Amino acid sequence: MLRRQSLSENDCRYAMSHGEFGDDVISSRRYVAIILTQGWCPDWAWMKGWLDREAGREKGEHPDIDVYELEYNKTPYFDEFRGFKERTFKNFQIPYVRFYIDGQLSSDSNQLGADAFYARFREGQRSG
Fold first, then answer.
1. Is the pLDDT of residue 127 over 50?
2. Is residue 128 over pLDDT 60?
């Protein structure tokens, strides 16, 4: 099941200070995805659509995943966070997705569909 939640300002400020999100986020479940985006992005609207459909559904073939989201253009620290994302994570596109398995970054990506999203965790299981 996908469990979706928003990143808090404290979560984001921690990441900006430490170069990575805190263990309470990246280790909240065995499988975690963090989506950093801007609300106006059409790719995000498409991705959000399938996330809305998948959230809370019991899916026997897919693992339980915590999904944290941030539409950072809607925050008072927009410029600061965008600069952090681009400098630290070296990613200039949106949506930007970071995948964690057992609290470790396993991969990252930009916009992707549900099958490719779930595959990131299956691939990480085999290689980890």
1. no
2. no
Token pair recorded at residue 118: 């779930």
Report if pTM > 0.90.
Answer: yes
Strand order in the sheet with 104-110: 2-6, 65-71, 31-37, 96-101, 104-110
> Tokens 């963090």 label which residue?
34
The CATH number of domain 2-112, selected from 3.40.30.10, 3.40.50.300, 3.30.930.10, 3.90.79.10: 3.40.30.10
Give the C-alpha distances (Å, rounded to integers) separating 78 from 10, 15, 38, 84. 14, 14, 10, 10
Task: Say if residue 80's pLDDT is above 60.
Answer: yes
DSSP state of 93: S
